[in-house]
Design a protein that fits this description.
391 residues, Aspartate Aminotransferase, domain 2, 7-stranded mixed β-sheet, globular, binds pyridoxal-5'-phosphate
Length: 391
Amino acid sequence: MKEIYLDNNATTKVDEAVFEEMRPYFCELYGNPSSMHFFGGQVQRKVDEARNRVAALLGASPDEIMFTACGTESDNAAIRSALEVFPEKRHVITSRVEHPAVLTQCRNLTQKGYRVSEIGVDGDGRLDMEELKATVDDDTAIVSLMWANNETGVIFPVEEAAAIAKAKGALFHTDAVQAVGKIAIDMAASQIDMLSLSGHKLHAPKGIGVLYLRRGTPFRPFMVGGHQEKNRRAGTENSSGIIALGKACELAGQYMALENNQVRALRDRLQNELMAVIPNARINGGAAERLPNTTSIAYEFVEGEAILLLLSELGVCASSGSACTSGSLEPSHVLRAMGVPFTCAHGSIRFSLSRFTTDEEIDTVIRELPPIIARLRQMSPFGREFLKAQG
Ligand code: PLP
């Protein structure tokens, strides 16, 4: 069965061109980039080229790019560093809808005596900017807010938020793991101090990430040991991963317009045609500005997991809005923070497209999903009531 992969916010296919770029750096050009000899030097030059490519996608300088192992490491390193830079400050601000890479770390800080404020969102997942303004104070070491939400695709006004944080002397970090490669980013025209990205969300392999560090931003390393990454992140570089990420960033720049036109059009067709034929559904965050590739749709009176399993039998890969990793079928913290009614949140499905998504794949989902929802509603007591009421 050929898969129809609509789970690109979970991870992406490595682009063939990216794979070809990294391939020689395993068995042939395996030198350590820090070595003095020519063999290491040729890897170092390719790592430098990759750093330039990543910087170009972000509108940054190459020296502002620090390679890490993943988005989670970048998020952890940014927040931890801010607390070490400002030992006297005991307040951290984030939002209620962050990825666990930020949220778990922040919640753990409360056990160490920090004050942690989680800014709320409205029914469409938009950040409460008034609450943010009222919450930042002189004691705030760092404000960490995601650029775009992984579940709903809702985009936060991070530049405005950064200005609010900076005015009070706090550092500003953004988890841009879902934003990079999908929307234009220009750090040269930004006030953001630190930004996280992850290779496997933009067609590079897993195990490579970046923490962007604005020049002059004080930073305390998370990983200590050797002198790699200008003493900011010890450990022999994942040179093949770095080289792959460089290529992926170059391609992301080239495909940015396509992402915002073709991918957006496919996403819009998918959600609009599904909304037209399946009653009692809502788009989570539908009224907010969103990533072009993401749509999260809540179906009343059905379980998201049941939809996923039936879709999976047809080869369609999507994701649900439940925190199923925790072993419960609780609606996700994101949907709960948005106040999505319980009956809807349970039946939420996220489709996340990529530049590899085709028209035919979208046609298949538009054809197959409506009978699946009808069948599941028929099986659930609430769903039967609802169908009966509909006549
Ligand atoms: N932040 C966001 C918004 C994400 O979506 C993810 C991954 O799903 C991460 C952080 C973690 O990235 P990584 O898997 O590279 O650790």
